[in-house]
Amino acid sequence: MRGWQKYKARETTEAIVGAITGSLAAPSSLLLGRYDDDGRLQYTGRTTTLARTVSTPVAGLLAPTGSGHPWTGWSFSAGWGSLDTLDVTLVEPEPEPEPEVEVGVDVARDAPGRWRHPARLHRARPDLSHADVPRWTSPLH
User: Fold this and answer.
1) What pLDDT score does 7 carry?
2) Are strands 89-90 and 41-46 parallel, antiparallel or unpaired?
């Protein structure tokens, strides 16, 4: 039998938590980012809905943001083709310990370079610093 098969290539990588859905004590999903070469936190995608077993360790890393968050005023789509926006809480991307996480992502990217599909949270990475997280690069540059 001839035909083709579709494979989803996934990789494990790190990202910085910039915002959440749900509450700080029990986040439902994480909005993820990476710093670009100019030091701006760029949105790269969000996670699938989190199970309590993985959201609890992440919750301990989160703090509400003060003024000057790089995503202030942004809106985030609730999904492909949806006009609805997510109700998000911006979190401080710089507290100690820093809110880095390890995620599994599909290697497919959209035109601006964001992950096309939701990331799967593997674990919180309080042992990492921002310097350990890969830089954000846009395919447009």
Assistant:
1) 63
2) unpaired
